Amino acid sequence: MNQTIDISKLSAAERAELARQLGEAEVREQR
How would residue 6 be classed by pLDDT, with cut points 50, 70 and 90? Predict the structure, then answer.
């Protein structure tokens, strides 16, 4: 899977979903 993501090619919904997933990952790491 390609880990490099061109944010400009994502829709607003895709960008929001990605940000949500990254945010959840950060919260889990802090616990």
Answer: confident
Structure-block tokens of residue 17: 């979903």
How much is the CA Rg of the chain, to the nearest whole Å?
A: 11
CB atoms within 10 A of CB 24: 10
In the chain, DSSP finds a helix count (H) and a strand count (E) of 1, 0
Exposure on the CB side of residue 11, measured as CA atoms within 13 A: 2
> Rounded CA gap, 24 and 2, in Å?
21
> Which regions of the chain does DSSP assign to beta strands (E)?
none
